[in-house]
Inverse folding.
DNA sequence: CTGTTAGCGCTTTCAG
DNA sequence: CTGAAAGCGCTAACAG
């Protein structure tokens, strides 16, 4: 029962002119009679004409669609990155399709296939933490579809990449803990396969060394996810040691919050007995008691810059050098850590 | 420099047969020689053939694209709803385009125009809280494009709708406060234009009446947003009254958390002096001290059901009756409220 | 200034 | 069982 949309041919027929003339009239073509042009434009408005983008895309061999693959969107981090991405692409008339891998390698592969089938003009991907084989990503590269990898690295894939300097962020956090008097600093690390986990771990280790502190393997415990619940087990283990830590650098705010909860329940004081620092600056973090000291990542800028690079790549005439961009995080000192 | 994708004509040429035969072979057409079919399928695989969906869509006059418009995606509520939506549509091969109005009427209108221009097959919309004129939505209806409105109502628009029973949720919460001994229950209400605000307010008022409690207009204060920061001012005003409330029902978890923060800073005890209840069950809420009592909404189901209804509408042969579905919320009693 | 033609990739009659 | 032709909506030569 759908009323058919007016086409260029409808207008042409009604005005007894050819479709191409209509097309020209609608596009401010230089060679066109002002009168016919006016007539066409008027009728187009009257019929509520809108060009059929499908037809255009078919003609131009592009889809005007960008495929974004993120592990999930319910976390603040990725939803904020998406804001940055949409902020660039929406005004440009691109359709941004957002897909979630749910941290599953299989789902990620599946999504890539689907998005390649619909022929997206470009990809923006932050891989799942299961992703250690990069065949699918290589397939994208081999198909000459522009791809920008952001936040999480895939070593060996030669594409544009945008990251946050995780190492710096972690170093700052742990260095701060050390300088504020912590002597036994633990780390609740992220999943080992993740590039971000590795860099934060390195930052942690280097900050300890820099401050002439011993490294205690027992004090490095991985979490299995990024929510408060995933911080519970690791912190319980830490609190069971005869000598418990007096500082904890958590992989992100989520697990930091889970950890704080357990610590407080045990009657241990934050930050007097244990300082806690997270990563991400989730909007909730400053409302906990004490408010969580954290490493703020420029999420919006991360999305925006990745999008901008992809857009350049899509529209460039001749191939330019690959880009590797790094954004800088910032330590936000709040109540969960002692003063230096 | 992009290598062209193989088309049906490429296959036809290589095999010296016609494109139509190739098409048939690829679609298990009954009238087709087994041999040619095998040859075609083999070559298709070899050339890594994928049908051009643009061409198909042009032919079928559909786009396989669903437009989802939400106020924002950084809140847990809407991102969880989106999960439900994608869970239905992705396996069906639809492209789900997610757009954010940022609670702006102008942006919402703009997005609708864009999505209509790309001819989405259907809309899933939760309007901004500024949206009080429904011309654009009517335009969608008039264009016979299926539309499902969810979570936030637009009275007067005749389309499929899926809501949560906000009234029930609010009533339960406030009734619980009353039964647990609160005598001066305040409400931090949502923006007045929002249907959900109105229903929660009604639930609040009715629960007070039901419990024979006076209604104090001073104790109903609207917030200007949904984040913790938006709970600060309202709760400050409440705490400045000579007789402060002993129970607060907040529009959502965000403002409840902001409110709790102020209350604790003043040295007022939760729940002994003031009980606090939120709405939404944000994943962080149970990690605050005390953990936040809240009204859990079936977010995922909300998205899933809305999507299912839209999908039915898109694919139905003949128009069926409009649907109005209501899902039920559940009060989760935690530490921020006293025992009954 | 305007019409004709061809074609983007695919399916679907209609003839063989 | 297979091919030719038409057409989805649009644009871009190429002629006038």
């Amino acid at each position: 029962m759908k009323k058919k949309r007016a086409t260029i041919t409808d207008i042409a027929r009604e005005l007894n002119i050819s479709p191409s003339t209509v097309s020209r009239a609608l596009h401010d073509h230089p060679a066109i009679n002002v009168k016919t042009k006016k007539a066409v434009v008027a009728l187009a408005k009257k019929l509520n004409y809108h060009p059929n983008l499908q037809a255009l895309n078919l003609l131009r061999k592009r889809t005007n669609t960008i495929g974004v693959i993120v592990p999930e969107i319910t976390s603040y981090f990725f939803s904020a990155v998406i804001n940055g991405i949409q902020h660039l692409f929406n005004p440009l008339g691109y359709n941004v399709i957002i897909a979630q891998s749910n941290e599953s390698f299989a789902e990620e592969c599946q999504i890539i296939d689907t998005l390649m089938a619909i022929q997206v003009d470009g990809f923006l991907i932050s891989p799942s933490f299961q992703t250690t084989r990069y065949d699918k990503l290589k397939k994208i590269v081999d198909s000459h579809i522009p791809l920008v990898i952001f936040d999480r690295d895939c070593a060996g894939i030669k594409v544009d990449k945008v990251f946050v300097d995780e190492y710096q962020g972690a170093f700052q956090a742990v260095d701060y803990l050390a300088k504020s008097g912590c002597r036994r600093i633990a780390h609740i690390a992220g999943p080992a396969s993740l590039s971000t986990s590795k860099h934060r771990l390195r930052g942690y280790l280097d900050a300890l060394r820099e401050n002439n502190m011993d490294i205690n393997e027992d004090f490095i415990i991985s979490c299995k996810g990024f929510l408060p619940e995933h911080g519970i087990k690791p912190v319980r283990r830490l609190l069971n040691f005869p000598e418990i830590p007096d500082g904890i650098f958590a992989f992100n705010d989520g697990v930091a919050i889970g950890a704080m909860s357990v610590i407080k329940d045990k009657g241990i004081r934050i930050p007097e007995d244990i300082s806690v620092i997270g990563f991400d600056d989730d909007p909730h973090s400053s409302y906990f008691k004490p408010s969580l000291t954290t490493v703020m990542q420029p999420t919006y800028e991360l999305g925006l810059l990745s999008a901008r690079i992809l857009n350049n790549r899509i529209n460039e005439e001749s191939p330019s050098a690959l880009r590797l961009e790094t954004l800088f995080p910032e330590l936000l000192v709040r109540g969960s850590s002692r003063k230096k």
Notes: The mean pLDDT of chain A is 95. Chain A touches chain B through 55 residues (CB under 8 Å). Chain A has three domains: 8-51, 63-164+299-326, 166-297. Residues 63-164+299-326 of chain A form a domain with the Rossmann fold fold (CATH 3.40.50.2300).
